[in-house]
Amino acid sequence: MRSFEKLKWRCRRGVVELDILLLHYLETHYLLADEDEQNRFADLLEWEDDELLAVLVGGKKSVVSGFAALVGKIRNVTGIS
Q1: Between 53 and 76, residue with greater pLDDT
Q2: Is 2 helix (H, G, I), strand (E, B) or coil?
Q3: Rounded to 5°, angle at Cα 73 from 62 and 39
Q4: How many CB atoms lie within 10 A of CB 21?
Q5: Alpha-carbon torsion, ordered 70, 60, 42, 50, to 10 deg
Q6: Has this prediction a pTM greater than 0.70?
Q7: Do residues 22 and 74 lie in contact, with contact meaning Cβ atoms separated by under 8 Å?
Q8: Which of 28, 31, 43 is nearest to 51 (CA)?
Q9: What is the DSSP string of 9-58?
Q10: Which of 19, 43, 64, 74 is deepest in the core (most CB within 10 A)?
Q11: Residue 19: which residues within 8 A CB-CB, separation 6 or more?
Q12: Is residue 12 classed exposed, middle or buried when 0-12, 13-18 and 19+ CB atoms within 10 A define those classes?
């Protein structure tokens, strides 16, 4: 498992909405997730802010294969439909 503190630091972005979404998922669901989902979350943190914002907040429908379930979960746990 990756260091929780390192992931927390990587959740800090240039956009406050992303900070809120990513930190909320990390603090409420990450530790309960299986290893595959944890790895996908770490990979998601490598995305550029504009792409993350478009997918998580803007509702962009085309998500890179393998990330749709995680994106849906992040959106659901934070109340974004």
Answers
A1: 53
A2: coil
A3: 85
A4: 22
A5: -160
A6: yes
A7: yes
A8: 43
A9: HHT--SSHHHHHHHHHHHHHTGGGS-HHHHHHHHHHTTS-HHHHHHHHTS
A10: 74
A11: 11, 12, 13
A12: exposed
